[in-house]
Amino acid sequence: SPKHLAKAAMLERAGVKGGFYLCGREFEKNGAKSRKDPFFRTGAKELVQRGHAVGNHTWTHPHMTRLSPDAAFRQIMTTRITLEDVSDHAVLSYAAPFGWQKKNWSDVSSRILVEKMLVETGHYVSGDNPLGGIPPDVFYPANRFSANDRKPNYKAFMKGLAKQTMLAEDGK
């Protein structure tokens, strides 16, 4: 939403950059659907131009655990293609709506197929996402906090930052 630009400005005043996970869902206005809302068309590009990261958060923000592998592929790849088109920048980061909820998958083979699809399409995935059919070191270790988190876990953040720094220094 346009609130992302306000949050980006707040981060910039603090001298840091942020990561914004965007959905590409169809928005309805006066009963008519448009492929992309105005923010999606212009906001993603502005965030990238200002030095922030833009990530994939699916097309319609579904519970991924309820989708077939084909439907999950469409959710993820439609958003990635559209985001890359509107931002003129590679979109490699992915965060599942509502988290990965490993225990909620009714079919383990579907979860594994979706995990492999994410890796094979070049997505980096946050730490609360897949850990089943793919070795854990393949996934991007992350500790994300919401913009409204009033009590972030400092130790968890520092541990995640140290691990990411170590991996970056090792060229991974």
Feature tags:
alpha/beta; 172 residues; two-stranded parallel sheet
Describe this structure as you would to a colleague:
With 172 residues, the chain is α/β, with parallel strands linked by helices. 41% of the residues lie in helices and 10% in strands. The protein has five helices and six strands, in the order H-E-E-E-H-E-H-E-H-E-H. The strands form three sheets. The chain has a two-stranded parallel sheet. The chain has a two-stranded antiparallel ribbon with strand order 2-3. Strands 5-6 form a two-stranded parallel ribbon. The longest helix is centred in the middle third of the chain and has 19 residues, at 69-87. Mean pLDDT is 75; it is low at 127-131 and 139-148.
**Rg measurement, Å:** 17 Å
List the total number of helices.
5
Q: Overall pLDDT, averaged? A: 75
Secondary-structure element string:
HEEEHEHEHEH
Q: What characteristic shape results from the CA principal axes?
A: globular
- How much of the sequence lies in strands comes to 5-15%
Strand and helix layout:
Blueprint: H1 3-13, E1 19-22, E2 27-29, E3 32-34, H2 38-49, E4 53-56, H3 69-87, E5 93-94, H4 108-120, E6 124-125, H5 154-169
Helix pairs in contact: 3-4
Summarize the structure.
The chain contains 5 helices and 6 strands. It is of the alpha/beta class and 172 residues long. α3 (69-87) packs parallel to α4 (108-120).
